[in-house]
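Standup notes
- DV: blocked on the single-chain target, sequence here:
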Amino acid sequence: MPFEYFDVTAEVGIRAWGETVSEAFAEAARALFSLMVNIETVLPHRTIAVELRAESLEVLLADWLNRLILERDRTGCVFSEFHVTVIPQGQDLALKAKIAGEPLDRSRHDPRIDVKAVTYNNLRVLQQPDRVQVECVLDI
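- DV (later): unblocked, structure below
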């Protein structure tokens, strides 16, 4: 399993892994939406491009997940596919992604937890010898 949850008082933590930073960010997005709905039932009918810049991987991770929550709220869609590329750009880091999903259908998507935001509590990007691990805490 490329992600797991950990307990935090009145909140939920996400820990996700990938071979690269880009893969770990995509797995964190999968973990986020898996908390909210059954993403196995979400079809990739609508694609949205996302571009972000930040001064650190930790801030980029929080901005990425918060942007996904914003897109959910703005469009009424839930997402199941996350194609992410994180690259250095000058002194910053840039994230370019394509996310795909469809409008929330309560009868098919099994709505679960309503995630409000990503906090800066326990926000980490750990580059290990064999993988990248990301962690964050969600306000629910």
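- Follow-up: The CA atoms of residues 19 and 129 lie 10 Å apart.
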